[in-house]
Amino acid sequence: EQESQNSFLNIVGIVGPTFSREAHQVAAFAGAIGIPAVSYAATEPDLSHRQTYPAFYRTVPADNTLAMGLVKMFDRYNWTSCILIYQNDAFGVGGARVVSDTFANYGLTVRELLVYDLTTLRVRGNLQTTLMNSASRIVILWADITYVSRILHDALDANVLGPLFTWIMTSSAPLDSF
Questions:
Q1: Distance CA 43, CA 58 (A)
Q2: What are phi and psi of 140, to 5 degrees?
Q3: Helices 90-105 and 63-76: crossing angle, nearest 10°?
Q4: Where would a tag sit more exposed on the chain, N or C end, judged by fewer CB atoms within 10 A?
């Protein structure tokens, strides 16, 4: 037992986790034992509250920082609205909330909210009809790298990628599969 306590004392920090939903527990644990936790991928804005998570750090910006970057881009190009496609988990729902709230605060409109269902691996509803009938031609895709290619393939099949729409993605996608 003494040996395991000594090895515990040698831990100087925690790297990870990848997902925000896991980072809450890891950050609370790290704060309780007095070591830093550094995540390379957790983006949820609530993790930035220093009083709640004093030992949590990240190497990527929080979702609200990304949302402000989108606002600045919309302002730069005089865009006023978008269609937001998001995955139905904590990352996607949180991102959709942050983008919608930030856009509303700056007079921008999220015209359509489309859910990419992680169970069926499809956008709920009719992607083609929704996009073609929308007054907006800017699509923000708030999905992690695991699903971006699938969603883009669906959009390609629905003929809503080409010159009629501008797509902005929160994760990169290998374009060699198209």
A1: 8
A2: -100, 125
A3: 40
A4: N
Tell me which amino acid residue 146 is.
T
Which residue has tokens 């609370």? 28
What's the CA gap between 26 and 17, in Å, rounded?
7
As a whole number of angstroms, the distance between CA 13 and CA 139 comes to 39
Q: In the block, which residue shows the tokens 């750090």?
A: 57
How do the pLDDT tens digits run along the chain, 178 residues long?
545 445 556 788 999 888 888 888 999 999 998 899 998 888 888 888 889 999 999 888 889 999 999 999 999 999 999 999 999 998 899 999 999 999 999 999 999 999 999 999 999 999 999 999 999 999 999 998 889 999 999 999 999 998 899 999 988 877 776 6
Q: Is 87 helix (H, G, I), strand (E, B) or coil?
A: strand
Structure tokens at 18: 């990848």
- For tokens 């393939």, the residue is 153
Tokens coding 129:
């009809």
- Residues sharing a CB contact under 8 Å with residue 51, sequence separation 6 or more, in sequence order: none
Q: Is 39 helix (H, G, I), strand (E, B) or coil?
A: strand
- Residue 67's nearest CA partner among 170, 138, 144 is 170
- In terms of DSSP bridges, do strands 166-169 and 138-142 run parallel, antiparallel, or are they unpaired? parallel
